[in-house]
Write a structure and sequence with these properties.
Elements lengths: L1 H17 L8 H20 L11 H16 L9 H20 L11 H11 L11 H32 L3 H24 L6 H24 L3 H4 L2 H12 L27 H19 L5 E2 L12 E2 L7 H9 L14 H5 L8 H6 L22 H4 L28 E6 L2 E7 H10 L5 E4 L2
Antiparallel strand pairs: 1-2, 3-4, 3-5
Length: 451
Amino acid sequence: SSNATAMAHRLRSRNARNVVVQLPRSAEQMLETLHGILYEDVGAGVRHVAAAEQTWSESDMTKRIVRYIVKAASASDLLNLPWREAVTKFVHNAMGSYSASCQEKPWFYDLDLSQVFGRASWELLTSNTIRPRPEYESVMELAEMEYQDWLDQTLHRKAMWIAVEEIFSDAKVRQKVFTSLQKTYQVAMEMAIQDTRPLGELAKLEGFMKKWIEDALTRSWNAVNNESERLLTERNSASLFRKLMAPFGPDHPFSCVPGVLTQSIGRPPPNWAFIGQQVQSIFMSWQSQNSGGSSKKRRKTAGSGGEAIAEAAPLSPIERTAASRRRRNRREPADLGDEDEDAGAALSAEEEELPAASEAEEPDAEEPLPEDELLAEPPAAVDDDEEEQPEDADDEQGHPQCTSQEDCLGSASDGLIRHILHGNRGDCYCNTCWESFRQQNPLLEGQPEVV
């Protein structure tokens, strides 16, 4: 009847509009269809951010991003994985290549590819051999979640690196302090979130910061080892954690403090008195260990109470230059007492609440620190023109196995580096391209590839 025909037409229209019908395709058919979808969807997103790009044309931006995603979708193992594993691995591999090349671009965090990865994941599964088939909404939700999680982790790592880079100039020290911050952050956050005591938001935030500061500084001190006394001081340690409160500046909303702990009270200010108090307490505790005859032990903490455990290790003296100041003006950190009922007031407390020793040693943010503590400016960003091969470069240039393909800066004689993504093997790049990426993002991890 005409009613049945009209109903069937409406169902077909709705399915086409919501993309809920998934027709099985071969891998070749899937990639061909995906390529067309990506050029349309990525191109639409690129148009909104193309003005911020100084080197590539809008067409080049689209072509490059599409290439990273299609290459990730070409992995044959994705066809035989359960759909959740396939989507997760696809997004991670695509984002690994995309972020390695574009993370330092000014538009990287403004280009929203969440819907792109959702549709691409759905199309990818048309050639997947594992049943049952998922619902479209489930695929979109997982792909967008993995994409956003990758962006969040990337931004978090960049924020920590910016803070470390501003305080320390020595490359090895930067890497060790950064690694310490990274490896202790998750533990401190999980401890604060899993604390079942009836604590207010401020108390949980203070618990997180206390754990993070203590563990990160202890790990950094032991990593720097014989140079600890000169390179890791109470002043630049406090400056580091103040910077982490607003790593991109006071006008940018991002903070390295977990948002789940500041939903009601908001982000702590950079001059939050609690940071100085905790850093001072840690250094005074280390000094006390030295005066008690434990100076030949590594600094190490363990347990929920944060008690110190001595472990045999090379000599690690603590602040001989600061010891005389401590003896002249020795005071214990202020007793914070019960949680302030007014969380906002507590967070914005002025630095004069610190003990006298801290007042003498920790300047306001505007006061420049000595050269041996607040170190030189970060190196200038690498010019994009130096990293990109001209579009009309000789086709014979480049390494045939480098993921950069026609944009490869190296040659066939270069070795290969395998990009390591969250412990998983990612794309291969020639040594020349890899080093250019490392100049932009020193945090990239890779290992030599045996051909």
